[in-house]
Design goal:
single chain, binds thymidine-5'-triphosphate, Maf protein, EC 3.6.1.9, elongated, 26% strand, cytoplasm
Length: 194
Amino acid sequence: MKGIHQLPQIILASKSPRRQELIRLLDFDFKVVLKEVDESYPEELKPEEVAVYIAEQKAKAYDGELNGEIVVTADTIVCIDDQILGKPEDAAHAVEMLQLLSGRVHRVITGVCILYKGEYNKFFDVSEVFFRKLTDEEITAYVSQYKPFDKAGAYGIQEWIGLTAIERINGSYTNVVGLPTEKLYQQLIRLVKQ
Ligand SMILES: Cc1cn([C@H]2C[C@H](O)[C@@H](COP(=O)(O)OP(=O)(O)OP(=O)(O)O)O2)c(=O)[nH]c1=O
């Protein structure tokens, strides 16, 4: 037990350093435990459903292995014109994604799954991100220097490109980084106190 609300131990099943840092800042007693999970999804799902579906798959890997802990998993996708952008496969793919996002608004959806006492509690958050027009030079320089291959949509809002090219966002900032902390906090308290 730790933090203002004294929650049980949390297992953050995520290799993402940004998620680990955010959950640390929430002041939880947590540890990181990782498992390989297949991130494929049924094609007919809507973007919001995809993020939640993958988050749930990540949590399912812990079913039956818990002893009162809370498992938290998440999945972040970028969505433009109903096209889902995951992580880029290589530099050319990253450049293509950023050219698509340049000068336009897109949605970032993070699905979250909380596994507690055998129940899967799922939700998602959506943020709109407004990019100014990026030049091709900026895009290629960013991709070669920052190698955003571990990031949905090929960019990090917390990096150089986010600081210099995002005009504004509508919604939660931490949701774009990979974990909607305000919603997650409310859900955790609701589950533990009920
Ligand atoms: C859009 C955006 C995404 N991201 C990150 C969040 C996620 O870590 C990543 C999307 O990939 P995910 O598959 O959501 O997560 P992950 O593979 O990094 O970690 P795990 O599955 O173990 O939890 O992109 C940023 O850091 N900044 C951004 O602005």
